[in-house]
Write a structure and sequence with these properties.
- There is one protein chain.
- The chain is mainly alpha-helical and 334 residues long.
- The protein contains 16 helices and three strands.
- It has helices at residues 7-22, 27-48, 62-75, 80-100, 105-112, 129-136, 144-159, 163-167, 198-210, 230-244, 258-271, 276-283, 288-297, 299-307, 320-323, 325-332, and strands at 174-175, 181-185, 191-195.
- It has a three-stranded antiparallel β-sheet with strand order 1-2-3, with helices on one face.
- A hairpin with a 5-residue loop joins strand 1 and strand 2.
- Helix 1 crosses helix 4, helix 7 (144-159) packs across helix 11 (258-271) and helix 11 (258-271) crosses helix 13 (288-297).
- It starts with 6 loop residues before the first helix and ends with a helix.
- 26% of the residues are buried.
Length: 334
């Protein structure tokens, strides 16, 4: 390695010393940052006509970062959210470089000043109870795979868990005795406790009877006893949604993902009149504003609120000060 090129050492220190040891970042954060830098370095190598192995810190300019973000969003077809995640990974590295290499501070500041792109905030797509029931009816529960899929989708709807939270679930985190509950580990390693319906507990018990797992082993696995992946769940869910749409046509216009069950849980809790702070704790939201988003999305709640408001009167009466002739007469004397 060329001693004049400090970039490889900085990159290694960023991932091993700062991100893992000092920040104690989760494996998901490390992998997300790793994927961003893989894409970014390949983009820079193509742009500068260099090999990745000889890229220096000076090659990583603010213009190059801006061009990469445009490439990630437009050429690769990513969303604005994905674009901002790529920027966060790059910013994190240059924040670290600024503390290690003072001579590069000016370059780091230029990159750190690249703004996060604002995206339109759309209403979350959620499933109606009838649509949830139609999807849950699709797995063939006479097979082990169908039992697993039905239990997983039911668990997602019951707990409102993110897909990775569900896939990381181990039997040791479940309390099967009454009152049944599950301990989930969410973003930032924040733990929360969610209650479980007796029906969900029964499904999980049946799955463990057919496919026993140790207390510290992943509960949802494939035929090779390997943990399921999020992409695999999305693939299976798409097939179930397509089949359910034959009897529930409203599903044809909805983009259903595993996260849609989380949205459905939140909206249905709002419809049931559950306090928003309880829903926040249930879903593991950091900000109450995130939970309030579901209250705004619930059309049924809006309809009920509208019914409580009386219709405006058709006959308009003049205000009291106009009806009081003595007051008007007095004003005329001023």
């Amino acid at each position: 390695m060329n001693k004049a090129n400090a970039f490889p050492d900085l990159m290694r220190a960023f991932f091993y010393e700062w991100l893992v040891e000092q920040r104690n970042a989760s494996i998901h954060t490390v992998r997300s940052y790793r994927d961003t830098w893989r894409l970014f370095l390949r983009f820079v190598a193509q742009r500068t006509e260099k090999k990745v192995a000889v890229i220096t810190l000076a090659d990583l300019t603010a213009d190059g970062v801006a061009a990469f973000l445009g490439h990630a969003e437009h050429d690769r077809g990513g969303t604005i959210g994905t674009r901002n995640c790529r920027l966060a990974a790059i910013r994190s590295f240059f924040n670290f470089v600024a503390t290690k290499d003072p001579a590069s501070i000016a370059q780091c500041v230029e990159i750190l000043h690249i703004p996060v792109k604002r995206a339109p905030v759309s209403e979350p797509c959620y499933l109606d109870p009838a649509e949830v029931a139609a999807i849950l009816a699709q797995p063939d529960r006479s097979t082990l795979e169908g039992i697993r899929d039905h239990a997983l989708l039911s668990f997602l709807y019951n707990s409102g868990a993110r897909i990775q939270e569900a896939l990381d679930l181990c039997p040791g985190a479940i309390r099967f005795d009454s009152p049944s509950c599950v301990r989930l580990t969410g973003k930032g390693r924040k733990e929360r406790i969610c209650p479980l319906w007796p029906e969900t507990v029964l499904l999980l018990k049946k799955l463990l009877e057919r496919q026993p797992r140790a207390l510290d082993q992943r509960l949802f696995v494939n035929r090779y006893s390997e943990p399921l992946s999020a992409s695999g769940v999305r693939f299976k869910l798409a097939a179930y949604v397509k089949a359910a749409a034959e009897t529930t046509p409203t599903l044809r216009t909805k983009h259903v993902t595993p996260h849609s069950f989380r949205h459905a849980t939140a909206v249905h809790l709002v419809s049931a009149g559950v306090d928003v702070t309880v829903i926040r704790s249930w879903l593991g939201h950091v900000s109450l504003d995130t939970t309030n988003h579901y209250a705004r999305a619930n059309l049924e709640t809006k309809r009920k609120a509208l019914e409580q408001v009386s219709a405006p009167e058709s006959v308009r009466h003049p205000p009291s000060w106009k009806r009081d002739t003595s007051l008007l007469a007095w004003l005329d004397t001023l």
